[in-house]
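For the sake of clarity, the format in which proteins appear in this thesis is described at this point. The fold follows as a row of integers, each naming the local backbone shape at the matching residue. One such record is shown here in full, so that the layout can be seen directly:
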Amino acid sequence: MYKVDLNSDIGESFGAYKLGDDAAVMDAVTSANVACGFHAGDPLVMKKTLENCAAKGVAAGAHPGYPDLVGFGRRNMKCTPDEEYADCLYQIGALQAFCRANGMTLQHVKPHGAMYNQAAKDPSLASAIARAVRDAGEGIILMGLANSEFERAAEELGVPFAAEAFADRAYMPDGSLVPRSQPGAVIHDAAKAAGRVVRMVTEGTVEAIDGTVINFRPDSICMHGDTPEAVEMAKAVRAALEAAGVKVTSLKEVVLG
């Protein structure tokens, strides 16, 4: 039987600003990537998000990003590996404290936005993030783009790795994500996204934006929580996977058995 985790980026509200319907999205996913205050989120939102995760039985992961609230962490920054390591470890530690306060163990770390995209192609940045995950505690899973530098860095450092694919993002022929500035980068049709995800999980392939077929088999599927169709898409993807006989389960069960 095929198994896969469903994750979503949540806890991205801060101060007076509310983003996404986290509670509804959490009803369809098994893992939550919780913003840690740099690109989005704040301490009170982190507290409430972890309380919701605990109540709904959703595993929690840290979602560290660049210190860029204005750009929502989606603008490239020139950070040294030491800066990347320190920023990630700082944010992971903050979320770990909220996990402990709710009787939970931090399951994984998934970088956000530009940090994710830059490190996926940069061995030194990927290694810095993997070191932060390793140093934060034993058994924490690094989640990153399939067939990327994240996977190689995790293997070199002995960090558990989860290959991630995206339900609502288009792919370039090299397996990277189509930049959001380009047309067609984000998929808004829930049925189309669900069909793509089933193919990824059961066949190990996805069609790139130019028609190229890319081969990978994901451990986790991301569904962004800040799009208008987020709740509909999360429910459609989960229903399609279960209809295809795929077991939707925790990332730990998928990666660690």
Observations:
- The chain has one domain: 3-256.
